[in-house]
Write a structure and sequence with these properties.
By secondary structure, the protein is an alpha/beta fold. The protein is built from eight helices and nine strands. The strands form two sheets. The protein has a seven-stranded parallel β-sheet, with helices on both faces. It has a two-stranded parallel sheet with strand order 7-8. Helix 1 packs parallel to helix 2. It is globular and about 50 Å long. It starts with a strand and ends in a 5-residue tail after the last strand.
Length: about 250
């Protein structure tokens, strides 16, 4: 049975790798983006190159109506929804607590947490077996900073990841009886565009010697775990949050 997977923040990094890996496994893919539409269209070409089908949808993660419209477009143009990967987010810069900006934190919370709730709501409405759906799976992408508190200048970002982790546990309990499994991944040091403005290469070089497997992770490492969690091979996995970190805590 062909099913559709919505991947938020899928223009680059983990989201892009997940969209392509899922297409290889037979999923139709909704590639969500906001500020990197050209890159999202390159991801779509990669999806099509592996024999998949997909669409690109541009939507501001803080716009509830736009997110709802994204799911409605999937209803019209793709197979029935079977999965959601909540991945979109941003770092929100770096600052000391003495320079804390409440308005900036509210936007960070809207993108990194509230949007996860909105997308999960839309997905559950469609997939719930109690609503006539066929069930499905949700994977929430968080970060190891959810446990560690992150580095000092990023405690605002780490806090949103802690909320994502908690949301995963609670939603798994609530949605399991509706035929929907909910799990999460917590990436560690991953070489993506996410840290480009904060010396990504330098960070990788400093941390690589501390990673037990001997290398910095790449987006496909995380994508492989996500796609497994979406699959029937993980049929009895619900409420798990899996570190993908090479053993570096």
């Amino acid at each position: 049975m062909v099913k559709t997977l919505v991947v938020t923040g899928a223009s680059r990094g983990i989201g892009a790798a997940t969209a392509i890996a899922a297409a290889r496994q037979g999923w139709q893919v909704c590639i969500h983006c906001n500020s990197h539409e050209d890159e999202a269209r390159r991801v779509l070409r990669d999806v099509e190159a592996v024999g998949g089908k997909g669409i690109v949808v541009k939507a501001d993660a803080t716009d509830e109506e736009a997110l709802g419209a994204m799911f409605a477009r999937c209803d019209r143009e793709l197979a029935p929804l079977g999965g959601l990967v909540n991945n979109a987010g941003f770092l929100g810069g770096e600052s000391d607590i003495e320079a804390f900006d409440a308005n900036a934190m509210r936007r960070l919370w809207d993108v990194n947490v509230v949007a996860y709730f909105v997308c999960a709501r839309e997905a559950v409405r469609r997939m719930s077996t109690k609503n006539g759906g066929r069930g499905g799976a949700i994977v929430n992408v968080s970060s190891m900073s959810a446990d560690s508190g992150g580095i000092g200048p990023r405690i605002h970002y780490a806090t949103t990841n802690g909320a994502r982790r908690t949301f995963t546990f609670g939603l798994a309990k609530q949605s399991g009886p509706k035929g929907i499994r909910v799990n999460g991944v917590m990436p560690g040091v991953i070489d993506t565009n996410f840290n480009d403005s904060f010396d990504n290469e330098g960070r990788n070089a400093r941390l690589q010697p501390l990673i037990p497997v001997g290398r910095v992770g790449v987006a496909p490492d995380v994508a492989a775990t996500i796609v497994w969690l979406l699959s029937d091979d993980a049929a009895y996995v619900n409420g798990a949050v899996i570190p993908v970190n090479g053993g570096f805590f």
